[in-house]
Amino acid sequence: MNPDDAWWRSAVIYQIYVRSFADSDGDGIGDLPGITARLSHVADLGADAVWLTPFYPSPMRDGGYDVADYRDIDPRFGTLADADELLSHAHELGLRVIIDIVPNHTSDQHAWFQEALAAPPGSPARARYVFRDGRGDDGTEPPTDWQSVFGGPAWTRVPDGQWYLHLFDATQPDLDWTHPEVVAEFHDILRFWLDRGVDGFRFDVAHGMAKDLAEPLRDLGPDQVHHRIVGDGWHGKHPFWDRDEVHDLLRGFRTVTDSYAPPRVTVAESWAALDRRGQYVRPDELHQAFNFDFLGADWHGPALRSTIDRSLTLADEVGATPTWVLSNHDVVRHASRLALPPGTDVEAWLWSDGTDPYVPPAVATRRARAAALLLLALPGAAYVYQGEELGLPEVADLPDAALRDPVRLRSAGARKGRDGCRVPIPWERTGPSYGFGPAAPWLPQPATFAALSVEAQQADPTSVLALYREAITQRRALLTPNTELTWHSTETDPVLDFTIGSLRCVTNPSPEPALLPDVPSGPPSLTSLPLPPTARLLPPDATVWYRTDTPERSRAGESEG
Q1: What is the pTM of this model?
Q2: Which of 269, 394, 419, 541 is catalytic?
Q3: Is 27 a residue of the active site?
Q4: Which of 207, 254, 464, 551 is deepest in the core (most CB within 10 A)?
Q5: Among 23, 169, 176, 204, the one annotated catalytic
Q6: What are 406-453's pLDDT values in tens digits?
Q7: Alpha carbon distances (Å) from 133 to 43, 120, 155
Q8: Does the annotation count 82 as an active-site position?
Q9: What does the pLDDT look like over 475-508, one tens digit per residue?
């Protein structure tokens, strides 16, 4: 394979949450033409690719992850012609485009499910989904005790008395992936988008498609936390998460994408336990799987070191490269999360409107900047969620009337939901939506977004935006694919100190200053906060980068290239 064909192994991939990136028509909702108009921002950042969340026709009960038609564009987002224009412009800018595929479930408005509802029990139309009779003499009890990820039972009853399975919202019925029509349909969906020029796919809930549907269905019992990721001990035998059979389905996806030249990238959203996640990126399965363990690691040297080591080892065992991510559209933004005390109940913090405990803005900013340089120094692929390059915090104080996430309703208020990380990003200092669009956005932005806008940070060499741009530029020059990470710190040190390629990275997540190493190359090439050139101590919540090549060797390498 041409090395350029495996571009994803060391890529920086920028996630675009379509509803919240840029609004071109003034309806308050982001859209494809808006993305196309703002793609130069992503190219200027230095990213290699963008990943777009679902843009298909949808009732939007779950932000577009309830798909009604996988081969079209929701009118709120544009048209197929707009999608083609986005792809063309991205490729002109040197950006690849990865799109979301949602294979575990459809919308209840999908033609297949509407056909199933109109058909009688036992009909071929219902066989594409998971319909079952209820328990009890009159069938009024759900078929199992399984619970939805969003809260409440994972079964909903239809008027004729049968129940259908939905591991997420009731408007998202699960497909039965043992049905050959389901497999064939999704392979054809992949070809539809590959033929239009997409460069890869991110598969939503990739660990959930295969289910044990043999009768009698198994209860999980009261001791199991049904809606969480699979923990240790199931070994591929959980009724619906991370089953061994899912890997044959992923191999089928890989066969389709490998039939195109050059091969397209495939990415798993897999919440399987870390020691099983490597199975998703074996040579004949997907290329990458999101590393949620790094996202969830405490801001603590030994905890970060342990997660990094495990991630590198497990990826290496199957010949894959790890991925690194700090934020996405489903979690509290790391510019707030990393400043919360260890053990904080995040849901309680959200319900306090982000006031209890108090998040000191200076601490939050320092940690977010330090974490960004740590992330971008690690070997493999780095995923950047829109707005993190601006240092956007979680908007924890959204008014109740503004909340849209079905998680809040399904959990009966136990969880506030994910809206706070989905607030539209600011492009300008002023205007009804800080440049997001001509009108007020679908979620309200705080006044603090003005100072964090792209316009406000554009010419500021000390801004978070400038830090990301410079870090990605240096990353491309200093990190070479397939180079090993060498530690200079121990597993128990409070400071992380390692070399990768021509880059040495030192991160201090501890509360005390740390002695900087004596590096022959001189002062740092990049720092997360201002440091004197002769500084010997690294403050808390700071990262520094050093070049380990000499300027002469660097210039020679550039001239040879």
Answers
A1: 0.95
A2: 269
A3: no
A4: 207
A5: 204
A6: 888 778 788 899 999 999 999 999 999 999 999 999 999 999 999 999
A7: 53, 12, 11
A8: no
A9: 999 987 777 899 999 999 999 999 999 999 999 9
